[in-house]
Design goal:
This protein is an alpha/beta fold and about 160 residues long. The chain has a single domain, classed as SPOUT methyltransferase, trefoil knot domain (Alpha/beta knot). The chain has a six-stranded parallel β-sheet with strand order 3-2-1-5-4-6. The relative contact order is 0.21.
Length: about 160
Protein backbone atom coordinates (compact mmCIF):
# COMPACT_ATOMS: atom_id res chain seq x y z
CA UNK A 1 0.00 0.00 0.00
CA UNK A 2 1.29 3.46 -0.73
CA UNK A 3 -0.13 6.88 -1.24
CA UNK A 4 -2.14 9.28 0.90
CA UNK A 5 -2.60 9.16 4.64
CA UNK A 6 -4.63 6.34 6.08
CA UNK A 7 -6.74 7.22 9.15
CA UNK A 8 -5.09 5.61 12.17
CA UNK A 9 -4.75 6.09 15.90
CA UNK A 10 -1.03 6.54 15.30
CA UNK A 11 1.45 6.30 12.47
CA UNK A 12 4.74 4.51 13.17
CA UNK A 13 7.44 5.70 10.77
CA UNK A 14 10.67 3.72 10.36
CA UNK A 15 13.41 5.48 8.41
CA UNK A 16 15.61 2.98 6.56
CA UNK A 17 15.19 0.08 9.01
CA UNK A 18 18.06 -2.40 8.75
CA UNK A 19 17.07 -5.44 10.80
CA UNK A 20 14.15 -7.52 9.53
CA UNK A 21 13.32 -9.00 12.94
CA UNK A 22 12.83 -5.50 14.38
CA UNK A 23 10.53 -4.46 11.56
CA UNK A 24 8.57 -7.71 11.87
CA UNK A 25 8.12 -7.22 15.60
CA UNK A 26 7.11 -3.58 15.10
CA UNK A 27 4.64 -4.72 12.46
CA UNK A 28 3.05 -7.06 15.01
CA UNK A 29 2.64 -4.15 17.44
CA UNK A 30 1.06 -2.09 14.66
CA UNK A 31 -1.33 -4.94 13.80
CA UNK A 32 -2.25 -5.41 17.47
CA UNK A 33 -3.03 -1.70 17.95
CA UNK A 34 -4.49 -1.02 14.47
CA UNK A 35 -1.73 1.42 13.53
CA UNK A 36 -0.21 2.25 10.17
CA UNK A 37 3.44 1.30 9.65
CA UNK A 38 5.36 3.55 7.27
CA UNK A 39 8.62 2.21 5.84
CA UNK A 40 10.81 4.97 4.44
CA UNK A 41 13.74 4.84 2.07
CA UNK A 42 16.03 1.94 1.35
CA UNK A 43 15.25 -1.04 3.57
CA UNK A 44 18.12 -3.19 4.80
CA UNK A 45 16.17 -6.31 3.82
CA UNK A 46 13.40 -7.57 1.59
CA UNK A 47 9.86 -7.79 2.95
CA UNK A 48 10.08 -11.42 1.81
CA UNK A 49 12.96 -12.01 4.25
CA UNK A 50 12.50 -15.16 6.35
CA UNK A 51 13.59 -13.32 9.52
CA UNK A 52 10.94 -10.67 8.97
CA UNK A 53 8.33 -13.36 8.41
CA UNK A 54 9.40 -15.24 11.54
CA UNK A 55 9.16 -12.09 13.69
CA UNK A 56 5.74 -11.06 12.38
CA UNK A 57 4.48 -14.63 12.08
CA UNK A 58 1.33 -14.65 9.96
CA UNK A 59 0.33 -11.06 10.77
CA UNK A 60 1.84 -9.29 7.73
CA UNK A 61 -1.46 -9.35 5.79
CA UNK A 62 -3.07 -7.55 8.76
CA UNK A 63 -0.40 -4.86 9.00
CA UNK A 64 -1.28 -1.60 7.28
CA UNK A 65 2.02 -0.80 5.55
CA UNK A 66 2.85 2.20 3.43
CA UNK A 67 6.16 2.49 1.57
CA UNK A 68 7.74 5.89 0.93
CA UNK A 69 10.86 6.98 -0.92
CA UNK A 70 11.51 9.90 1.44
CA UNK A 71 10.64 11.00 4.94
CA UNK A 72 9.12 14.18 3.51
CA UNK A 73 6.73 12.06 1.47
CA UNK A 74 5.79 9.95 4.51
CA UNK A 75 5.14 13.02 6.66
CA UNK A 76 3.41 15.15 4.02
CA UNK A 77 -0.11 14.51 5.41
CA UNK A 78 0.96 15.31 8.99
CA UNK A 79 0.73 18.66 10.72
CA UNK A 80 4.30 19.57 11.74
CA UNK A 81 3.32 19.81 15.42
CA UNK A 82 1.94 16.24 15.31
CA UNK A 83 5.26 14.65 14.36
CA UNK A 84 7.46 13.25 17.12
CA UNK A 85 11.08 12.21 16.57
CA UNK A 86 12.86 9.69 18.80
CA UNK A 87 16.57 9.63 19.50
CA UNK A 88 18.93 8.61 22.27
CA UNK A 89 20.58 12.02 21.82
CA UNK A 90 18.23 14.22 23.83
CA UNK A 91 17.25 14.63 27.47
CA UNK A 92 13.53 15.16 26.80
CA UNK A 93 11.61 12.07 27.93
CA UNK A 94 9.02 10.49 25.64
CA UNK A 95 6.56 10.65 28.58
CA UNK A 96 6.55 14.47 28.42
CA UNK A 97 5.10 14.52 24.90
CA UNK A 98 1.33 15.03 24.65
CA UNK A 99 0.18 12.47 22.10
CA UNK A 100 -3.06 12.65 20.13
CA UNK A 101 -4.85 10.49 17.62
CA UNK A 102 -3.24 10.67 14.19
CA UNK A 103 0.27 11.51 15.43
CA UNK A 104 3.36 10.36 13.54
CA UNK A 105 6.07 8.67 15.61
CA UNK A 106 9.39 8.70 13.72
CA UNK A 107 12.28 6.32 14.46
CA UNK A 108 15.65 6.06 12.74
CA UNK A 109 17.65 3.12 11.54
CA UNK A 110 19.23 0.82 14.08
CA UNK A 111 22.88 1.68 13.40
CA UNK A 112 22.77 5.50 13.46
CA UNK A 113 19.25 6.66 14.32
CA UNK A 114 17.75 9.71 12.66
CA UNK A 115 19.92 12.22 10.76
CA UNK A 116 21.52 14.83 13.03
CA UNK A 117 20.29 17.68 10.81
CA UNK A 118 16.69 16.48 11.22
CA UNK A 119 17.01 16.35 15.00
CA UNK A 120 18.72 19.75 15.14
CA UNK A 121 15.89 21.23 13.05
CA UNK A 122 13.28 19.78 15.44
CA UNK A 123 14.66 19.97 18.99
CA UNK A 124 11.27 20.69 20.56
CA UNK A 125 9.77 17.64 18.82
CA UNK A 126 12.59 15.20 19.71
CA UNK A 127 12.25 12.75 22.60
CA UNK A 128 14.16 9.87 24.15
CA UNK A 129 13.48 6.86 26.30
CA UNK A 130 15.64 7.35 29.41
CA UNK A 131 18.42 4.80 29.75
CA UNK A 132 19.84 4.05 33.18
CA UNK A 133 22.93 2.02 32.50
CA UNK A 134 25.99 1.56 30.33
CA UNK A 135 24.15 1.01 27.04
CA UNK A 136 23.86 3.70 24.34
CA UNK A 137 20.38 2.78 23.16
CA UNK A 138 17.67 0.16 23.38
CA UNK A 139 16.45 -2.15 20.64
CA UNK A 140 14.34 -0.39 18.01
CA UNK A 141 11.36 -2.72 18.35
CA UNK A 142 11.39 -2.25 22.13
CA UNK A 143 11.61 1.53 21.74
CA UNK A 144 8.66 1.62 19.35
CA UNK A 145 6.59 -0.55 21.72
CA UNK A 146 7.36 1.64 24.72
CA UNK A 147 6.43 4.85 22.90
CA UNK A 148 3.33 3.44 21.17
CA UNK A 149 1.83 2.14 24.39
CA UNK A 150 2.57 5.38 26.25
CA UNK A 151 0.78 7.27 23.48
CA UNK A 152 -2.16 4.85 23.62
CA UNK A 153 -2.26 5.19 27.41
CA UNK A 154 -2.39 8.98 27.15
CA UNK A 155 -5.25 8.69 24.67
CA UNK A 156 -7.18 6.42 27.06
CA UNK A 157 -6.88 3.40 24.76
CA UNK A 158 -5.11 1.09 27.24
Amino acid sequence: MSGGAVPSLLHVVLVEPEIPQNTGTIGRVCAAAHLVLHLVGKLGFSTDDRHLKRAQLDYWPHIRVEYHDTLEEALSPAAPDRVFYFSANTDRSYTTAAYREGDYLVFGKESVGLPRALLEANPQRTYAIPIFGPVRSINLSNAVSVVVYEALRQMGRV
